[in-house]
Amino acid sequence: MNPAGKVAIVTGGGGGIGGALAARLAEAGARVVVADLDAAAAGTVAAHIEADHPGSVLAVGADVADRGAIAGLIDTAEAAFGPVDMYFANAGVTGGVGLDAGEDAWDRALDVNLRAHVRAAQLLVPDWVERGSGYFVSTASAAGLLTQIGSATYSVSKHAAVGFAEWLSVTYGDKGIRVSCLCPMGVDTPLLREGFAAGDPVGEAATTAVTAAGRVLAPDDVAQCVLAAIDAEQFLILPHPEVLEMYRHKGADYDRWLRGMRRYQATLLGDSDAQGPVA
């Protein structure tokens, strides 16, 4: 799909990948609603875009864990620009670490990282099917294909996001609906810089697992990958190509991969007897 002339909503658009995506979409000729829990951050991103592409952007403060907020975003986009063509479910949270993560941490991770995608699709897809066209882009994570050391909430919710994107593609791909799923490793965003749990050994190991696994990319590098994938209507978007090889190793010998991940985790936690990860 060519974004030129399309109406797009980008959640988590107040910075990081979302802010870069909004800018790239506007540059490609789309009209963009930038949504973020931090309304001021969304406004700052929108102001920068507006300076270069007048009339192409609108900022909205919204908590996409709430179905009503998503519905409001869609209504706002339609009133300002017309029917929504593209939805970027990009907002995300890390959640908690270990089995000590409480109900609130699980609820927040599942609401933002998964249910926000489901709720947006429920609101948009029926109309897209009627129109015969629409594009849903889910920001998951390499953790959704592999795992996230330390954080069950993040790993599980991101696996679920990948699963939902797959299901959308299988169910609606022959009805004009295109779906892509973004699964990067480390990206230089506030989410990464804030980490999983500063001062907690397991939380710090979780952050190190991300930053040590490969290059930490700039958000704009990731946004460029996303737009290229949309142009090609490609499902799996891997800004870190090495994730595919890791995923293949996991599938080829699951038990060996699990043993390797346990050893890698022990290394991160300072176990001097641990060996490195198995490829």
Write the topology of this structure.
Layout (H helix, E strand, L loop, with lengths): L6 E4 L5 H12 L3 E6 L2 H14 L4 E5 L5 H14 L5 E4 L13 H29 L2 E6 L12 H21 L4 E6 L7 H5 L6 H13 L5 H14 L3 E2 L4 H11 L1 H15 L11
Parallel strand pairs: 1-2, 1-4, 2-3, 4-5, 5-6, 6-7
Helix pairs in contact: 1-2, 1-8, 3-4, 4-5, 9-10
Describe the structure.
The chain is of the alpha/beta class. It folds into two domains: 7-240, NAD(P)-binding Rossmann-like Domain (Rossmann fold, 3-Layer(aba) Sandwich); 243-279. The chain contains ten helices and seven strands. The protein has helices spanning 16-27, 39-52, 67-80, 103-131, 152-172, 190-194, 201-213, 219-232, 242-252, 254-268, and strands spanning 7-10, 31-36, 57-61, 86-89, 134-139, 177-182, 236-237. One of its GO terms (molecular function) is oxidoreductase activity. Belongs to the short-chain dehydrogenases/reductases (SDR) family.
